[in-house]
Write a structure and sequence with these properties.
The chain is α/β, with parallel strands linked by helices. It has helices at 3-14, 19-32, 44-49, 57-62, 84-96, 111-123, 147-151, 173-176, 183-198, 206-210, 252-272, 278-287, 297-304, 311-329, 345-350, 365-375, 394-406, and strands spanning 53-55, 74-76, 100-104, 136-141, 163-169, 202-205, 232-240, 245-246, 249-250, 290-295, 386-389, 411-416. The protein is 43% helix and 14% strand. Helix 7 links the parallel strand 4 and strand 5. The longest helix is centred in the middle third of the chain and has 21 residues, at 252-272. The mean pLDDT is 94.
Length: 419
């Protein structure tokens, strides 16, 4: 969608005359929901109206729609014991609140039936706005007996457009995939071929995801940046890095003040929102995950006169992610997840962004992978990064998967652009 179309649809849904009016109302609603004394939020309206930051779409749509609206963008749902009708009911509740949901299907023996039912159900719905399709993450472990059909499912009615298939690779899988004749090598080759043809499945690295975590993580949201325990939800916001450049220099103090303001706001929203199940509500309030991220990184580099992947660019990204993590964790809200990098297509357009997340506007998969590796050590969540190839082949895709795992990334998702 074009920027003007995104703004028009949002304003039509909300009934506001301008984007600035919408942001003022969103800010006021968050401040009015506050029930305790804490750091001030005087600058929230200015930050939003100056396009220095933006909340995710569910917050923009719902935060002022009632005393306890659903506002989370990302859900991880435990569906181990649910029937298919129960799963679809849960999904529909989440879609009505404009969120997306991911689940581990590995404990089930009806994986094919479940993902087809999920897809068919989502095809007939939208996520908050008519232009927003429903997003579902279906995760299956690489050692599941139905993994071959998961990689290349037989679906006569057409490709999956709403169910995003991701494979959880257990610890040691990547090392074993280098052994000729191993089942891991065969599976990785099949996955790479499928990625080249369709962009699916994505890969999740279980050892990297769980490194240093206080609980077991077995699933993610569809885009793989939200990493938390089962039955949790997260509210997100992103900082527009291009708006923190003053007189040719990056303004770190301004960025940190904005991040702290967003952190206060996201915790207010988390505490006062409603959730689709009691288990998701209680676990979310227990773990208190939020997601403060960054976007428009490539455009900020352009304004600074630095090339994507340059030494200066990597150094800036390391410094930003490190100082954000420290500043937010020092606020002592008890958030087990604080920082991540989310996809920001729609909210990025609302902020006049020229690039999204930390992705490059050119196709250079190695630069993107190494750039993500510079950011990942300082993030408590993951990075939604689509690695772009102009003309991939299986061998270079597999090499990059191994590289991504070796340098500490938590996931690998590919987009192929053939000439």
């Amino acid at each position: 969608m074009r920027r003007d179309e995104v703004i028009s649809e949002l304003l039509s849904y909300r009934g506001d005359a301008s984007l600035e009016e919408a942001m003022r109302k969103v800010s006021a609603a968050i401040i009015n929901r506050r029930s305790y004394t804490g750091p001030p939020l005087d600058s929230l309206e200015r930050i939003l109206c100056e396009k220095k930051a933006c909340f995710s779409t569910p917050i923009l749509l719902n935060v002022d729609s009632g005393p306890h609206p659903m506002t989370a963008s990302c859900y991880i749902a435990d569906i181990d014991q649910m029937s298919i009708p129960e799963i679809l009911k849960l999904h529909n509740n989440i879609f009505d609140g404009s969120g997306g949901v991911g689940s581990d299907l590995s404990p089930r023996d009806d994986v094919g039936d479940v993902i087809i039912a999920m897809e068919e159900n989502a095809r007939n719905r939208y996520c908050g706005l008519p232009s927003r399709g429903c997003s579902i993450g279906a995760i299956l472990r690489a050692d599941h007996p139905q993994i071959d059909r998961f990689i290349q499912p037989n679906r006569p009615s057409g490709p999956f457009r709403h169910v995003i298939r991701n494979i959880m690779l257990p610890a040691g899988f990547i090392d074993r995939s280098a052994i000729p004749g191993s089942s891991e090598k065969y599976l990785l080759e099949q996955a790479a071929e499928s990625m080249i043809q369709s962009g699916s499945p994505g890969l999740l690295f279980e050892d990297n995801i769980n490194l240093g975590q206080p609980y077991k993580i077995r699933a993610t949201n569809p885009c793989a940046e939200f990493l938390c325990a089962d039955d949790t939800a997260a509210n997100l916001a992103s900082l527009n890095l291009s708006r923190f450049i003053t007189d040719g220099a990056f303004n770190h103090n301004d960025l940190l003040e904005a991040a702290k303001t967003l952190t206060v706001a996201l915790n207010i929203i988390l505490d006062t929102s409603s959730y689709p199940t009691e288990s998701i509500r209680s676990n979310t309030l227990k773990h208190k995950p939020i997601g403060v991220g960054i976007t428009n990184y490539d455009d900020a580099l352009r304004k600074l006169g630095w090339g994507y992947g340059s030494e200066e660019a990597i150094s800036l990204l390391c410094e930003i992610t490190k100082e954000l993590a420290f500043a937010i964790s020092s606020m002592n809200f008890g958030n087990t997840q604080t920082t991540l990098i989310a996809p920001t297509g729609r909210t990025g357009l609302l902020m006049n962004c020229e690039s999204f997340g930390i992705e490059s506007r050119c196709f250079d998969e190695h630069l993107e992978i190494h750039t993500a590796a510079a950011a990942q050590p300082h993030l408590t969540g993951g990075i939604s990064l689509t690695v772009c190839y102009p003309d991939p082949d299986r061998s270079n895709v597999i090499e990059d998967i191994m590289l991504a795992h070796r340098i500490g990334l938590k996931s690998y998702i590919m987009y192929s652009k053939r000439e």
